[in-house]
Design goal:
CATH superfamily: Cyclic phosphodiesterase
Strand content: 15-25%
CATH class: Alpha Beta
Number of helices: 8
GO biological process, one term: regulation of protein kinase A signaling
CATH topology: Cyclic Phosphodiesterase, Chain: A
Number of strands: 10
Protein name: A-kinase anchor protein 7-like phosphoesterase domain-containing protein
Order of helices and strands: HHEHEHEEHEHEEHEHEE
InterPro entries: AKAP7-like_phosphoesterase, AKAP7_isoform_gamma
Shape: globular
Low-confidence stretches: 176-223
Distance between the termini: 91 Å
GO molecular function, one term: protein kinase A regulatory subunit binding
């Protein structure tokens, strides 16, 4: 009896210690996440996906649009499957901010947009020009801005970011310079294989909702935002090719003649706040708000 009682006392004490240590470990990890419920919040944020964005529309500049279409045709001539990755001619835009807006945040997001626009109108506006073709992870082909234009657009982005961030609206970024450099290195190393094996069979299953769309991260570091114009993106093929998505390798666009594209100038006349879903009546994104520039 004494032996049995001793064993029961030991098991009771051991169980209490284990529960106590687990409790302490859990709250320590939560504190490391930055809040008492950091673990739960961090887990939920991994499932957040972009649903709204702010941009400068470009469809009004016909000469520029024609150059983007030529880029698409050039890439498709190297690998025909990528023709289905082309952005529609009426949807070209300079991405400024990519967001996840909850239903409960719609009114505050509109306030954020208009508040930022009031400050943006005070800037010295300038024409925007482009000088490069690059990709995010070989998934999104985009036109990069010339340095002077990039600085101007980054000033616009900073005002938008501050206005949305202070209302706790989730902001997505895209690749940093270091990450992009690594991507280019991988692309150049894989270029010899691109013709024989142009499809990435190791890509994540698109049905996995925890994965952000190509070119976006769920961090909101300021250095994560790269102003750009998306020309092609392989996410257009997700439903068709499931977890096999074609890559947009540098070989497909590196020899495109950029002289005409570099000569084009865009004077922004408005900024739009859009939902990512297409409006069936206009075949354009659904416009939440827009504001003209002086």
């Amino acid at each position: 009896m004494n032996v049995r009682k001793g064993i029961l006392n030991y098991l009771t004490l051991h169980s209490t210690i284990v529960r106590r240590n687990h409790h302490r470990s859990y709250h320590k990890e939560c504190r490391q996440q930055g809040s008492p419920h950091g673990m739960e919040k961090n887990s939920k944020m991994k499932n957040v996906r972009p649903n709204y964005f702010v941009c400068i529309p470009l469809s009004g500049n016909k000469a520029l649009v024609e150059e983007f279409l030529k880029v698409q045709n050039h890439v498709a001539s190297k690998f025909e499957m990528l023709k289905e990755c082309a952005i529609e001619r009426n949807k070209f835009h300079i991405s400024l901010l990519i967001l996840h807006v909850k239903k409960s945040q719609m009114e505050s997001s509109k306030e954020a947009f208009h508040e930022a626009m009031a400050e943006i109108k005070k800037l010295n506006h300038q024409a925007i020009s482009f000088d490069t073709l690059e990709t995010f992870r070989n998934d999104v082909l985009y036109a990069g801005l010339q340095e002077g234009s990039r600085k101007y657009v980054m000033n616009v982005i900073a005002l938008l970011r501050d206005s949305f961030a202070k209302r706790d609206i989730h902001i997505f970024g895209n690749r940093t310079g270091r990450e992009e450099a690594r991507g280019k290195k991988r692309a150049s190393g894989a270029s010899d294989k691109s013709a024989a094996n142009p499809i990435d069979k190791s890509a994540a299953n698109p049905s996995d909702k925890s994965a952000a769309p190509p070119g976006t991260h769920q961090r909101d570091d300021k250095e994560q935002i790269t102003p750009h114009v998306t020309i092609m993106k392989n996410s257009y093929l997700r439903k068709i090719y499931s977890n096999r998505k074609p890559q947009i390798f540098a070989d497909y666009y590196a020899d495109f003649n950029l002289s005409k594209l570099k000569n084009e100038r865009v004077v922004p006349n408005k900024i739009q706040f859009l939902e990512m879903d297409t409006d069936s009546a206009t075949s354009y994104y659904r416009i939440i708000a827009e504001c003209g520039l002086p």
